Structure formats: C-alpha cells, structure tokens
Amino acid sequence: MKLILIQGFNQYQKIWIDNIFKHFDLYFDDIILFEHKKNMSKVINNNDINNEAKELTKIINNCNDNYAIFAQTTGIFVTLKAIKNIKKKPFKCVFLDIPIIRARINNIPIDILLKNHNINTLFIQNKIDPDFLLHELYAYLKKLKIKNFKLIELNTIPENSNDVKIFNHLFSNYMFYLNSIIRNL
Fold this sequence. Notes:
Layout: E1 2-6, H1 11-24, E2 30-34, H2 46-61, E3 67-72, H3 74-84, E4 92-96, H4 100-105, H5 110-114, E5 121-126, H6 134-143, E6 149-154, H7 164-184
Parallel strand pairs: 1-2, 1-3, 3-4, 4-5, 5-6
C-alpha cells in the first residue's frame, strides 16, 4: 500500500512531516511526500487550497495501488478538496490537528469539505489544541454526519512545539497503534 503525506503550510510542519516520513517508511511499500507549490510563509485562503488540491489530484490519479493519506493541519483542507474531486478514493486517512476555526477565519469552506466524508479516517487532535478540543471535534463530526471515523487525543504537544522529543514520544507511544489503525481502520 502507498502512503501520501501532506503537510500543513508552515515550515515547522515540514519538519513534522519529514519525521513522520522516517517513521512510516518501514510500514508502507511506497511513500509519496506531497510538496506544496504555495509559499509557506504567507496566509492561506480558499484559492490556495483549490490550487494545491489540483496538484494533489494529479498525484492521486497516478496511484495504481491502494493508498492511504496522512495529512496535517491545513494540508487536511487540501486533502479534503482533492478527494471530493476524484473517483479513486483513499483506502484510509489520518488527519493530525484539523484546524476548524482557522479554516473559518480564512474563509475555507470546511463544513462543505467535510460534509458526508465517508472514508475511514483517524482524527488525531492535540489535547490543548487552540482550535478544537477532542469533544468539540467529535460533536462537530457527528453534526456533519461523518461516518467511519476514530479519534485519538494527544496530550503531549504544546502549542507551537515542533521538537524532536515530541516526535519520539508520539511515535514510541502511538506508532504501533497508528500502523494498526491505518492498515485496519
């Protein structure tokens, strides 16, 4: 199975996704790291999401095998937009820290992107996430009638923290769980 990794739009999330790549490399036949065309230092908007989604759609359309997606923060918006417009849906998705409030502030139609999302998806949300707490995310997903999802709450990631200790903790405590969920969701 292939795994497509999609980072958020800032430089720290590039570091995160590079580390995730290293940890998942043993578990997948092939890993594709989606590189954003957008300058990551600028604020994103719905046009940015649409443009990035077109690029991601091209990559997905070239996947002959089953594939899963691991997307982070604003990369989740790109993913949701792309998979709405393709026939071959991912086998599974993992979404790390979905920024619902940030989407609304930036006029990204997150409700529309998520509405009726029916792909098996694991949502991992930081316990102290300033955007949405886990119980808020659960209620939100239920309200949108999202099916086939699981939630994990991480209680180790302080806001704006991107250091190696967190990776080590995240992957030493959750790697087996993440791998089994990705394969068996």
